[in-house]
Design goal:
mainly alpha; 0% strand; Four Helix Bundle (Hemerythrin (Met), subunit A)
């Protein structure tokens, strides 16, 4: 399935939107711990959506899971995944649901939000390399 297929493109568009939302909140000088939690959530969501785009391009069914570690494994298809990718994916996993609901996890700080955004960059860069290599050049 080429990269311009609607499913892959739609997943990537939503990932870009999640990153934009995270960046808007990070840029807000009046951001609150709740907003920082949502930065973490949007960072996790962006990474999840890019990984799901890679799964689709791979031709596999998209797992009904928010686990970035699982999705990374599906994309890698049994190949070695470096420790930094797995650590970043695992760090983001806790933000898939918790920040959206009161009392599920402690409030987030700007430092935590920045770390989540950085972890998303690591996972997304890895997945995008895989996406780029899976698309034949014209």
């Amino acid at each position: 399935m080429p990269l311009d297929q609607p499913d892959v493109g739609a997943w990537l568009d939503l990932a870009r939107a999640d990153l934009a939302m995270a960046d808007l909140a990070l840029a807000d000088v009046h951001a609150t711990p709740a907003m920082f939690g949502l930065v973490c959530f949007h960072a996790q969501q962006a990474a999840e959506k890019v990984l799901k785009a890679a799964v689709i391009l791979h031709g596999a069914p998209v797992p009904r899971s928010h686990s970035l570690v699982l999705l990374t494994d599906v994309v890698a298809r049994g190949n070695h995944v470096s420790e930094d990718i797995l650590v970043a994916a695992a760090a983001l996993n806790e933000y898939g649901v918790g920040p959206r609901y009161p009392g599920v996890r402690p409030p987030s700080s700007r430092a935590e939000a920045l770390a989540a955004r950085s972890a998303a960059n690591v996972v997304i860069a890895w997945a995008m390399q895989w996406l780029d290599s899976a698309v034949p050049e014209h």
